[in-house]
TrEMBL record:
The active site is at residue 113. Pfam families: FdhD-NarQ. Required for formate dehydrogenase (FDH) activity. Acts as a sulfur carrier protein that transfers sulfur from IscS to the molybdenum cofactor prior to its insertion into FDH. NCBIfam families: fdhD_narQ, PRK00724.1-2. Keywords: Cytoplasm, Molybdenum cofactor biosynthesis, Transferase. Residues 1-21 are annotated as: Disordered. InterPro entries: Cytidine_deaminase-like, FdhD. Its main location: cytoplasm. GO terms for cellular component: cytoplasm. This is Sulfur carrier protein FdhD. GO terms for molecular function: sulfur carrier activity; sulfurtransferase activity.
């Protein structure tokens, strides 16, 4: 299995002095996701939790709706070489229709593929099987502002490399505890891994939860939260305009600039109390 980190030599320059030393770097490798042997997409990711990543991706792209839609997921190797663990084949249940794939791009065509903003919002609304706007969860502001420290304390690979994004899931239907943390070179992959973790445990839709991401809140991450039925998305950095539009449109609470004891709430502020 591929390692999450690797050591590389580096010349460290400071105050005119050069020091040779080893440095720990986050690994970045491609993962090809196949459906029944047919290539679907390739994502650059940090190895680890690959089955969660694939299943989270399939859920947030609207291809599957729950754990029962997946029969099996296994790594593939070529007959003449060792398994690189960079190709994962997913077998869908017989009653799950295959996705529409643009073979010229080798990519599943969804609302995140560059179409206009209005069409993107409509596509997510039609594709989502869940309605986060109906979720009655309420979360104390003090609990939200405490989340970044909990996330940082759990970022083991970030502590040694400084080079990974992270996503964490907090469950306020059961006391507000942090349920899972996943790290990856791509923030969208970290989110897919968290959602895939929940799917493995038949916890979709993720009612009563908060998804915390370490960077900005993009349209893509907001889309993934909506598709998983997550009612609150919180980001340490800025949101995009289309992310805010989607959150408003779907009744998702979008929190951004979560720093210290302050935050901006761009939609459904009634869920943040106190």
């Amino acid at each position: 299995m591929s390692r999450i980190t690797q050591r590389r030599p580096v010349s460290h320059l400071a105050a005119g002095d050069a020091t040779q030393r080893p440095e720990t770097l986050a690994v970045e490798e491609p993962l090809e996701i196949r459906l029944g042997g047919v290539p679907l997409t390739v994502t650059m990711r940090t190895p680890g939790s690959d089955i969660e990543l694939a299943q989270g991706f399939l859920l947030t792209e609207g291809i599957i709706g729950g754990r029962d839609d997946v029969v099996a997921a296994r790594y593939c190797g070529s007959p003449d070489s060792a398994n690189t663990y960079n190709v994962l084949d997913v077998t869908l249940a017989p009653d799950v229709p295959p996705p529409a794939v643009d073979i010229t791009r080798n990519f599943y065509a969804t609302s995140s593929c560059g179409i206009c903003g209005k069409a993107s919002l409509e596509a997510v609304r039609l594709a989502s099987r869940h309605r986060p706007g109906d979720d009655p969860v309420r979360v104390p502001a003090a609990a939200v502002t405490a989340m970044p420290d909990q996330l940082r304390a759990a970022q083991d690979v970030f502590a040694s490399t400084g080079g990974l994004h992270a996503a964490a899931l907090f469950d306020f239907s059961g006391g507000g505890t942090m349920q899972v943390v996943r790290e990856d070179i791509g923030r969208h992959n970290a989110v897919d891994k968290v959602i895939g973790w929940a799917l493995e445990r038949n916890r979709i839709p993720l009612a009563g939860t908060v998804l915390l991401v370490s960077g900005r809140a993009s349209f893509e991450l907001t889309q993934k939260a909506v598709m998983a039925g997550i009612p609150i998305l919180a980001a340490l950095s800025a949101p995009s305009s289309l992310a805010v539009d989607l959150a408003v449109d779907c009744g998702l609470t979008l929190v951004a600039f979560l720093r210290g004891d302050s935050m901006n709430v761009y939609s459904r502020a009634d869920r943040i109390t106190g």
